[in-house]
Amino acid sequence: MSTTREVIALQFGNYSNYIGTHWWNIQESSFSYNPEDAPSEINHDVLYREGVNLNKQVTYTPRLLLVDLDGSLKHLPREGELYGNSVKRATDDSAGDPLKKIKEDLEDLSTDVEIVQQPQADKHDFQKDLENPVVDIQEQNYNLADNVETWTDYLYARYHPRTVNIINEYKYDTEKQTFDTFSSGVQLWKTEQFEYDFCDKIRQYVEECDYMQGTQVLFDCFNGYTGLATECMEYLNDEYSKAIFAIPVYSPRNTLFENAGASEKLYNLLFNSYVSYIIFKNIIPN
């Protein structure tokens, strides 16, 4: 029987997902697929889980749940790229064009139906090269510091279908925070998406573990994710009573808030941070 003490990772917020993407890319870069190599000193089973996709292929994905706003994924399907069959990613000609089939079916209807097709997001060159077995990405210079729009542009790791959780109530904006207050996060936690669905995903991860040691929580500490993350940590403490490694992060960018002027901006930043620290100080023992 395995004696691995598993950890469940949680990421709340766009900046946290930027950091988390680097973290998971680093983890995967340390994997060795050569059976002749010496055993690694790192036990990747602590943060990773083994599974099987619909094609009966064995997968090895982070034991992770992440949260971001609608519009932040660009090309990445919400169900990830190892499981599921996204319409926009269908490339097998033998399977036909699903959208074309829908249009043909609608032509038989007596009423007029307008189809509004969202333009497909452009893929970063790094992502295109990952799909091209001829290209050696180690030899390329992608200049990621200057031409990345969101964290999915440089994501190398592949996620489980339950990993990505999108908040549909707020739109992702590169210039300003639309999900901007602590109370917004608290209210969002009380919705069905988080109080039931998100908690059920946590439960599924927990039930897969043999000796779960705790959770690793990375969260934006300057916007609405403060309220969402602290509510989640209270839930984890009440439900599982395991160790919580909380990592609040601040974006170095000049943060603008959609519902606040210049004078209210500093207040929002201070209030969001202060309340989150007060709450999780009582959750996480010294």
Automatic annotation (TrEMBL):
Domain Misato Segment II tubulin-like, chain residue ranges per copy: 5-131
Is the keyword 4Fe-4S assigned to this protein?
no
Top-level taxonomic group? Eukaryota
A Pfam family: Tubulin_3
Q: Please provide the record's keywords in A-Z order.
A: Mitochondrion
What's one GO-annotated cellular component?
Answer: mitochondrion
The entry's localization annotation reads: Mitochondrion
Segments forming domain DML1/Misato tubulin: 145-247
Q: Which family does it belong to?
A: Belongs to the misato family.
What this protein is called in its record is Protein misato
Organism the protein comes from:
Ceratitis capitata
Query: Which gene holds the coding sequence for this protein?
Result: MST
